[in-house]
Amino acid sequence: MNPLALLEKYYPPGSQGHAILLEHSLAVAAKAEAIARRLGPQLVDADFVREAALLHDIGICYTSAPELGCNGALPYLAHGYKGRELLEAEGLPRHALVCERHIGVGLTAEEITSQELPVPPRDMLPLSVEEQIVTYADLFFSKDPAAGHRERQAERVRESLARFGAEKVAVFDGWHRRFAG
């Protein structure tokens, strides 16, 4: 499976969306793969982590995010579950789950319902270590071209998660202890 070719199927090379998504995805993949290799093959499938990290945001093409070169109709939050649908249709169910479960540190069905979020009301929590690694690595990189693609410091990640509750920060802190090396 060639994740870069799959990205090109949905994001034409040379387009703004392709450039932004590729730069972001390569940064996330590099961080995620380094974590996976450090943890070792007995604990983590590093090849899968790299592929999933490259594809985790493939669903943004369905969203209305013109600053990212995406002119779909859905709100940005929907990119996770739409990515899942897209990758399931491509015959990649394991990769698809990473797409759906990588939003923030994950979403519960209760949060989705109580906050009336524009996604299906089901648990979307990263469960496998591979899902957790990709989700963790993604938190360090913005797709916003104005912000650049520099890696954020852990304290900045904590600050951005704090507005969603202390429990989100606690999940991140647990991952940070495990994955920061």
Domain tally: 1
Average pLDDT confidence is 96
Percentage of residues in strands? under 5%
Gyration radius (Cα, Å) is: 15 Å
Characterise the protein shown here.
The chain has 181 residues and is mainly α. It has one domain (3-179): Hypothetical protein af1432. It contains nine helices and two strands; from the N terminus they run H-H-H-E-E-H-H-H-H-H-H. The protein has helices spanning 3-10, 16-39, 46-55, 79-89, 93-101, 109-114, 129-138, 154-162, 166-179; strands at 64-65, 70-71. It has a two-stranded antiparallel ribbon with strand order 1-2. Strand 1 (64-65) and strand 2 (70-71) form a beta hairpin. The chain is globular.
Pick out its properties.
single chain; 181 residues; mainly alpha; Hypothetical protein af1432; two-stranded antiparallel ribbon; 9 helices; globular
TL;DR of this structure?
The protein is built from nine helices and two strands; from the N terminus they run H-H-H-E-E-H-H-H-H-H-H.
Give the SSE map.
Layout: H1 3-10, H2 16-39, H3 46-55, E1 64-65, E2 70-71, H4 79-89, H5 93-101, H6 109-114, H7 129-138, H8 154-162, H9 166-179
Antiparallel strand pairs: 1-2
Domain HD/PDEase: 17-152
InterPro entries: Diverse_Catalytic_Enzymes (IPR051094), HD/PDEase_dom (IPR003607), HD_domain (IPR006674), HDIG_dom (IPR006675)
Protein name: HD family phosphohydrolase
